[in-house]
Design a protein that fits this description.
Helix content is 76%, strand content 0%. The protein is mostly helical.
């Protein structure tokens, strides 16, 4: 059976379930490697640039927590349940990280920075959105991720670059 054109859902529920479980499992190693690099890069940035110390450490901790959550999900026998739980963990972590970032910016307003930081952040959001679809994260989690980004971006303090 062919996937539906707009939703990319396979009409046969058994085949759809097997496909999403396999997609979720196959995306495990690339994600853990990405999150390890993410964590290391943000820790290095926090050490080298004192202006981003708080947000760098926060972002590194979020990356490490997601790597642990994904590792735990990979070990579950029921990969359908694992992908839903990981999707929920991703949303909770993402909302928590945005809330902490906004709180940090409230206490310590951001300093003018390089415009490349804004571009890099946008590119990361874009790539993560593709990853979430590619790895069969449930649509509810993907929609919540996008909504959190939109809301968080809307309430950010004015940034100078």
């Amino acid at each position: 059976p062919r996937a539906r054109v707009w939703s990319l859902v396979i009409p046969d529920p058994v085949l759809e379930s097997r496909f999403t479980a396999a997609a979720f499992r196959s995306a495990y190693t690339p994600l853990v490697i990405f999150l390890a690099a993410w964590t290391a890069i943000h820790l290095i940035l926090a050490a080298v640039y004192p202006a981003v110390r708080d947000t760098g450490v926060l972002t590194a901790l979020a990356g490490a927590a997601l790597a642990v959550a994904r590792w735990r999900a990979n070990r579950m026998a029921d990969q359908q349940r694992a992908r839903k739980l990981f999707g929920a963990a991703l949303v909770v972590m993402h909302a928590s990280a945005w809330a902490a970032l906004l709180l940090i910016f409230r206490v310590h307003p951001p300093e003018p920075g390089h415009p490349g930081l804004v571009v890099a952040g946008g590119v990361l959001w874009f790539l993560v959105s593709f990853y979430l679809r590619h790895s069969a994260i449930p649509w509810q989690s993907r929609a919540a991720y996008a909504a959190i980004n939109a809301l968080g971006s809307a309430v950010l303090p004015q940034l100078s670059v």
